[in-house]
């Protein structure tokens, strides 16, 4: 279940379900039941439950949950934002089946309760919360009671993970069918608390028919493209990665990228740069080769001799990075562009696009964090959610974009995108991004397509950070990869993911 559905894709699935024999009422009943079950499982001691019910189908789910919780012996009251007569469709049906106490929301304080179920607004949130709804949310938040959000915390935009106005932070969110982007993108991810994905009987064929192009970054997304070494192969069958190294006193980043590429599975890795920098590298590396290149233009000749080289340019690149980028784009079979490249092309994304477009068959992966993304695109850059911006950037650049952070988004120019949720906070450490560029190049070197290589690299990077644990420094990441790969390979052999 790696597809992520936007709110409109979810509504489209809802519209198509009856044709497959699944009525809206059945879905709503199953959704409300899942909410009640989650409440009972998580808070078995909670005796008194207040359900905040909104005017749409999210409220409808709330009425079902209220009935189910009351049937299981809980004392339940519904605080309704809209009078029952104002409800429509399935929500009206479910409200009519609720025979317990219902109060106007302004009259129901959470003081006498143990748990709040937030069924005010879900996928249909159309504008920032104000007035009575905002007031009710404020009171629930101030009560300090645990909150179970139905589908998404009310006030949170399920597509963007942002809240334009008041939002009710949840302890637990129960969502249905598939995750929505807002469960994964910050700040939404933090506002959802724990997320439970409930199967409510939506047929898989209906979900497939919607044609979602956004995915959770899990091995299931890229496993079939993951390279397997040929038992009869030699090192150059697994690709040769060339890393441009900047000056003598800024060698660490390029070295981390080189080590990342080697651990990521490249058959050979070469650091190329000024002799003084190579002397520093020589004191640290053994498996990595060193090749003097006094000027970035010298990369042209080096790459011409190694037709299948994958180039990494950017980490610790220093002066001349634009020329190094040109050489890499002209001569390498695929490129990973990071760090200083975004400074060199600051406010000139079209210049980078044009260079990439000169060799359309050669994949390029760019790996900016938010600051670098802003620097590259400047004013008039892609707008919207992190997902929207990464997608738009990929389209504009004609490159696979890895927009890094705690919720790294990988977007392909073909419209596919994936959101990662496995990076621990201690991964935010200097040099971690350089290592990621290396992992990605190591996979590209073995022939993995760009989107798959980038998503796999991001996932492996997060797993490597979890493997090391708190106290991680970037130097630890390459060395942590073998254990992660071993686990991944054994779950592939068993046909499963190492995470649900
Ligand atoms: N899809 C599925 O398969 C399934 C979906 N299910 C459930 O349906 C939910 C989506 O239901 P939904 O589309 O009725 O939207 P919902 O979130 O209840 O809100 C719409 C109402 O709120 C109103 N409104 C909006 N913003 C407002 C504001 N700021 N302030 C005040 N009012 C505002 C809006 O009014 P209007 O904008 O028209 O004025 C309208 O009345 C989904 O999250 C899930 O829980 C399940 O039953 C299982 C199957
Ligand atoms: N809060 C966070 N939680 C988890 N991972 C994070 C967080 N912030 C950043 N990261 C990850 O840490 C890495 C940092 O990369 P980057 O900013 O490029 O660092 P550097 O340039 O020093 O190598 C990226 O992979 C990013 O996705
Ligand atoms: K809600």
Automatic annotation (TrEMBL):
Location of the YjeF C-terminal domain: 218-488
Function: Catalyzes the epimerization of the S- and R-forms of NAD(P)HX, a damaged form of NAD(P)H that is a result of enzymatic or heat-dependent hydration. This is a prerequisite for the S-specific NAD(P)H-hydrate dehydratase to allow the repair of both epimers of NAD(P)HX.
GO BP terms: metabolite repair; nicotinamide nucleotide metabolic process
Membrane-spanning segments: none
Family annotation (InterPro entries): CARKD (IPR000631), Nnr (IPR030677), Ribokinase-like (IPR029056), YjeF_N_dom (IPR004443), YjeF_N_dom_sf (IPR036652)
Binding site for AMP: 404-408, 433
Domain YjeF N-terminal: 10-208
Biological source species: Methylopila turkensis
Name used for this protein in its record: Bifunctional NAD(P)H-hydrate repair enzyme
Sequence similarity: In the C-terminal section; belongs to the NnrD/CARKD family.
Sequence positions that bind K(+): 58, 118, 154
Upper taxonomic lineage: Bacteria, Pseudomonadati, Pseudomonadota, Alphaproteobacteria, Hyphomicrobiales
Catalytic activity from the UniProt record: (6S)-NADPHX + ADP = AMP + phosphate + NADPH + H(+); (6S)-NADHX + ADP = AMP + phosphate + NADH + H(+); (6R)-NADHX = (6S)-NADHX; (6R)-NADPHX = (6S)-NADPHX
Gene Ontology molecular function: ADP-dependent NAD(P)H-hydrate dehydratase activity; ATP binding; metal ion binding; NAD(P)HX epimerase activity
CDD domains per record: YXKO-related
SUPFAM superfamilies (alphabetical): Ribokinase-like, YjeF N-terminal domain-like
Amino-acid positions noted as binding (6S)-NADPHX in the UniProt annotation, renumbered to this chain: 57-61, 122-128, 151, 253, 316, 369, 434
Family matches, as PROSITE patterns: YJEF_C_3, YJEF_N
Record note on quaternary structure: Homotetramer.
Cofactor note text: Binds 1 potassium ion per subunit.
């Amino acid at each position: 279940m790696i597809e992520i559905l936007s709110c409109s894709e979810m509504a489209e699935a809802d519209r198509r379900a009856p044709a497959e024999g699944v009525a809206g009422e059945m879905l709503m009943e199953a959704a409300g039941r899942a909410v009640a079950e989650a409440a009972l499982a998580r808070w078995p001691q909670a005796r008194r439950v207040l359900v905040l019910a909104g005017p749409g189908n999210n409220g409808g789910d709330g009425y079902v949950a209220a009935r189910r919780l009351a049937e299981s012996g809980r004392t339940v009251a519904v605080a309704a934002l809209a009078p029952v007569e104002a409800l429509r469709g399935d929500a009206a049906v479910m409200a009519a089946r609720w025979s317990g106490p219902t109060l106007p929301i302004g009259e129901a304080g959470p003081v006498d309760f143990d748990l709040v179920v937030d069924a005010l607004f879900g996928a249909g949130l159309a504008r920032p919360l104000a007035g009575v709804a905002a007031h009710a949310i404020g009171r629930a938040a101030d009560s300090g009671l645990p909150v179970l959000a139905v589908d998404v915390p009310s006030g949170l935009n399920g597509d963007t993970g942002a809240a334009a106005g008041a939002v009710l932070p949840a302890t637990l969110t129960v969502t249905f069918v598939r995750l929505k982007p807002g469960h994964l993108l910050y700040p939404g991810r933090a506002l959802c608390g724990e997320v439970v994905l409930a199967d409510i009987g939506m047929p898989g064929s209906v979900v497939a028919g919607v044609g979602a192009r956004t995915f959770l970054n899990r091995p299931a997304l890229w496993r079939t493209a993951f390279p397997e070494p040929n038992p009869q192969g030699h090192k150059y069958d697994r690709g040769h990665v060339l890393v441009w190294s900047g000056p003598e006193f800024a060698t660490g980043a390029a070295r981390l990228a080189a080590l990342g590429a080697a651990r990521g599975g490249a058959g050979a890795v070469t650091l190329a740069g000024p002799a003084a920098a190579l002397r520093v590298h020589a004191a640290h590396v053994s498996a990595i080769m060193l090749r003097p290149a006094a000027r970035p233009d010298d990369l042209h000749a080096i790459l011409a001799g190694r037709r299948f080289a994958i180039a990494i340019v950017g980490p610790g690149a220093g002066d001349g990075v634009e020329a190094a980028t040109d050489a890499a784009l002209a001569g390498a079979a695929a490129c990973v562009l990071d760090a200083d490249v975004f400074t060199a092309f600051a406010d000139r994304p079209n210049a980078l696009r044009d260079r990439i477009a000169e060799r359309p068959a050669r994949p390029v992966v760019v790996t900016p964090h938010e600051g670098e993304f802003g620097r590259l695109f400047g004013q008039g850059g892609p707008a919207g959610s992190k997902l929207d911006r990464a997608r738009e950037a990929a389209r504009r650049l004609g490159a696979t974009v890895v927009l890094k952070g705690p919720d790294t988004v990988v977007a392909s120019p073909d419209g596919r995108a994936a959101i990662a949720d496995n990076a621990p906070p201690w991964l935010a450490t200097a040099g971690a991004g350089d290592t990621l560029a290396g992992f990605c190049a190591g996979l590209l070197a073995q022939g993995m397509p760009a989107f798959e290589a980038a998503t796999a690299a991001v996932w492996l990077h997060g797993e490597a950070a979890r493997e090391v644990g708190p106290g991680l420094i970037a130097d630890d990441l390459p060395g942590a990869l073998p254990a992660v790969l071993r686990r991944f390979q054994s779950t592939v052999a068993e046909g499963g993911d190492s995470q649900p």
